[in-house]
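Example record used in the benchmark description.
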Amino acid sequence: MINKERTLTGAPVIIAPGKIFLVGEYAILERGPAVLAAVTRHAVAQFVPGLEASSRVVAQAVRHATLAIGESASALPPGSVLVRSDDFSAGGRKIGLGSSAATAVASVGAVFAAAGIPVDGHRDRLFATAYAAHQEAQNGAGSGADVATATYGGLLQVERTTMSVPAVESLPVPADLHLVVFWTGQAVSTPSMIEVMQRFARQAPATYRELIARLEEAAAQFASHIRAGRASGAVAAAGRFGQHLAALGQAASLPIFTPAFTRAADLARGLGGIAKPSGAGGGDIGVAMFAAAEPARLFVRALTLPLVAVAVDLDPMGVRRRAPGDCPPPRAGLFHA
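Model output (structure tokens):
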């Protein structure tokens, strides 16, 4: 998925992966746990002297990175970061795999690398910097879970705490867990969805808190099953999470589960699995989960428009410098398309 042709000779090239929410949407905004997987769609970034920032995210990433590296910034000429994010589009339309977070992480990494600071040895520092930049670029919206996933890669539990950055825990990948990422063909504005949910929280705080508590419990159960390698238990917990997510949407008059998601959920259920929105819902990206490979393959074959399987694999490495001749890591076998 990485475009190796559209980069400049000589400048360090930094890549950062996208993300898929497995569970934890909305709950993480209230400091509940979320589990995400890094996927092989990448933002590709290089520091370029004399360049102007192409977006608010890039501008904030460069500013925060320059401040973070202190005296090392004196080695850099004025400039910005060139970012390619073609991987996050399909048919000319953006798909919700975390392009802005990957852009922030890759941009910070590009500034670090250009100043002689290796990304691999400063991942925690890079995460804190990219998290602050992304929060500022988005006016404080979002959980930062996508930034964590782009930084560390693999399968992660992310949870907001009283600390300055979310807490991140790497999770093992159960051998029998099989995922399918699918797209509804419909874009959605995550900030708009969150705004409606926040309004509901103010208007009906007791109901909101009760529904969020159910999401938090199901997400925690999912993470526990993942740690123990219990794919069947994880799939069941994700199914409960999806049901609670649908109930939250109904209570808030927010279409988290669109007809396309409901159709995908019915299809997955008939094959012994589950399917749910990945992220804010209302359209865009979903994920199906199974405890065996064959049902996942059957789910992919049975999808009909507007539902389309998205070809991704697990990215176990997170943000990193790409060197000439680098080979992609071996397929993890977690995703089907």
